Amino acid sequence: MANREGDNGRIYHAAIYVRLSKEDKEKVESDSIVNQKALIKNYLADKRDIVVCMECVDDGFSGVDFERPSFKRMIGEIENGNIDCVIVKDLSRFGRNFVETGRYLDQIFPALGVRFIAVNDGFDSVDGRNFSDRILIPFKNLIKNTSYLRREFIGYPQIQQNRIYLAYYSDSIKPIKR
Predict the structure, then answer these.
(1) 57-61, 132-136, 148-152, 172-176: which is most confident
(2) Of 29, 68, 123, 137, which has the fewest beta carbons less than 10 angstroms from its beta carbon?
(3) DSSP letter string over 39-69?
(4) Pick the residue with more confidence: 68 or 136?
C-alpha cells in the first residue's frame, strides 16, 4: 500500500476486527461479517493515517469472553509491535463483557500505544476524550442492543413480549420505560 500520512505524520498499522456470534446470526443482515468489513472500509476510505495490515474474523464466537482465535492472533500481533490500531464496527463487536472491554480500552491498549476506533459509536481513542466519555459508549451499546439481555441478571426476569420487566422480592412486575 502506498505511504499515507495523517496530519501529524504518524501512520497507524491497523487490524480490522469483526465478530458475529451464533446468537447474532438471527439478527438483521447489518451485523454480518461482510457488512461489518464494508462499513469499516468505507470509514477508512479518507483516513490517510491508517493502513490496514490485517483482518481478523471471529465468526460464530460469543463476545462474552475474549477466548476467540482471531482476537488472540490480533493481540499477538499488537504485542509483537506489528499492529497499533484496532478498528471495529461498534463496541459490541469487540466484546460484550463490560469489565474486560473496559480493561482493554483504558489499560491494555493505552499501555501498548494502540489506537482504538469504534466506527458506529463515533469513538476514536486519539480524540482525547476523558474516561467518562469512554465509559458511556459501552453502556449505550448494552442499552441499545437489548437482545444481549438474553440471560437473567441475578434473579431478575428478562424480556417478556419485547418489554423489559424487573421483579425484585415482589409479586408486582412493572415495566421499565424505554
Answers:
(1) 57-61
(2) 29
(3) HHHHHHTT-TTEEEEEEEEEET--SSSS--H
(4) 68
Integer Cα distance of 52 and 41 in angstroms: 9
Q: How far is CA 80 from the centre of its chain?
A: 22
Place of cell 461498534: 90
DSSP string computed for the chain: ------TTS--EEEEEEEEE-TGGGGS-GGGSHHHHHHHHHHHHTT-TTEEEEEEEEEET--SSSS--HHHHHHHHHHHTTS--EEEESSHHHH-S-HHHHHHIIIIIHHHHT-EEEETTTTEEGGG---HHHHHHHHHHHHHH-GGGTTS-BTTB--EETTEEEE-SS-S--EEPP-
- Nearest residue to 74 via CA among 55, 97, 50: 55
φ, ψ at 82 (rounded to 5°):
-90, -25
Assigned C-alpha cell, 140: 449505550
74 pLDDT higher than 80: yes
At 15, give phi and psi (nearest 5°). Answer: -115, 125
